[in-house]
Amino acid sequence: MSQQTQTTTSLRAVPQLDLAAQYASIGEEIRGAIERVLASQQFILGREGAALETEIAHLCGAAHGIGVASGTDALILALRACGVSAGDEVIIPPFTFVATASAVNAIGARPVFVDIRPDTYNLDPSDLPRRVTKKTKAIIPVHLYGLPADMDPILDFARANDLRVIEDNAQSLGATYKGRPTGSMSDVACISFYPTKNLGAYGDAGMMVTNSGEAAERLRRLRNHGQSGKYVSSEAGWNSRLDEIQAAILRVKLRRLPEWQRARLSNAATYSKLLLGVPGIAPPLIPENYSHAFHQYTIRVEQRDALQQFLAERNIGSAVYYPVPLHLQPLYSSLGHKPGDFPHAEHAAKEVISLPMYPELQADQIARVAEAVIEFVTK
Questions:
Q1: Are 238 and 73 a contacting pair, CB within 8 Å?
Q2: Do 59 and 82 meet the contact criterion of CB atoms below 8 Å apart?
Q3: Closest Cα partner for 50 from 315, 200, 285, 244?
């Protein structure tokens, strides 16, 4: 092993995400919340879940919150509540986690892909007209990495074509678009509380928010075996109920979310100050009148895989979200897509890399990461 390799690998690790650092600051509160649920012996559809639903709905500027077992279940039930069924088509971007599309498959519908904007990585509204058909029933814009999609033209297109809109807000809780919170602009919005999210549970958990009382009532039935009353089911439903322990944990963390979000914004600003203008690096774009939740701090570089290896050799974590766009996944080979069909998504998949980002990240760690990235692109 060379002297340089010994030196770099002996440096203290900068993980891409450090949940242990978060727990160190809130562990006592978390344990107290869990004990409170255990003492109550109410584990499903109780007070903690109901309170969290109200609090998350308020955060999203929505009237109703409906807790479920995961973000994926939220998408599936939202599609059902919006009237999407087998044989229908749902428009989604190909540059997102597979759950956005697999939720469509789960109800027998077909995902139809629309390319992304290369600067924001979100669905490109200008690509919608050529993708819509008589079978199209809904659009799922994804607010990727913490940045809202361009919702106004999407909503205008949906209204003109009698389509429902479901926000995939798994990564952008707390972000805003032209003054409106993500989650407030669609028929139903879906949230994931997967542990790595900005507001993460200690297991799977999710929620749907909506301004429609009718939709909320149906979603509450659908998550609980279609029951309209105790042991009375009015339609086929699902078993997807947010449990009380996860709700209690999330309520503790929700109180810290504004503080954590300020830290994320500060960390992102520091990264951008250090990386802005460096040839070969494209930092995240924040369009005017948007606010970014910075679930990820994602840059673009041409030799992404080599950069990731370079960082790993220096004990710096990173992640690639997502290396294979959905239209080229084996799961969707039957749709007949080929390389080149969605060029912006494909180019992004080859070039994006997410650097360490979490509230507890320190200024010296950010400087070390940025220094390594700059060293790589300028060597």
A1: yes
A2: no
A3: 244
- Nearest partner of 210 among 187, 181, 191, 240, judged by Cα: 187
d(CA 324, CA 343): 12
- Give strand ranges (E) for 285-378: 290-291, 297-300, 352-355
Residues 6+ apart with CB under 8 A from 34: 245, 248, 249
Task: Write down the mean pLDDT value for the chain.
Answer: 96
The answer to whether the pTM exceeds 0.85 is yes
Helix/strand/coil percent split, the chain, to 5: 45, 15, 40
Report whether 53 contacts 65 (CB < 8 A). Answer: yes
- What's the pLDDT score for residue 10? 66
pLDDT tens readout for residues 127-172: 999 999 999 999 999 999 999 999 999 999 999 999 999 999 999 9
Q: What radius of gyration, in Å, describes the C-alpha atoms of the chain?
A: 21
Q: Which residues contact 326 (CB under 8 A, 6 or more apart)?
A: 92, 94, 95, 96, 98, 100, 101, 111, 113, 332
What SS3 class is residue 71?
Answer: helix
pLDDT recorded at residue 9: 55
Confidence of residue 63 (pLDDT cuts 50, 70, 90): very high
**What is the C-alpha separation between 107 and 123, in angstroms, rounded?**
22
- From the list 124, 123, 73, 81, the residue with the least C-alpha distance to 99 is 73
Give which of 208, 263, 235, 252 is closest to 62, Cα–Cα.
208
In total, the chain counts a number of residues equal to 379
Q: Give the residue among 301, 298, 312 at the shortest CA–CA distance from 355.
A: 298
According to DSSP, the residues that pair with 319 across neighbouring strands are 354
- Determine what percent of the chain is predicted with pLDDT higher than 70: 97
State residue 252's pLDDT score.
98
Across the range 261-271, mean pLDDT stands at 98
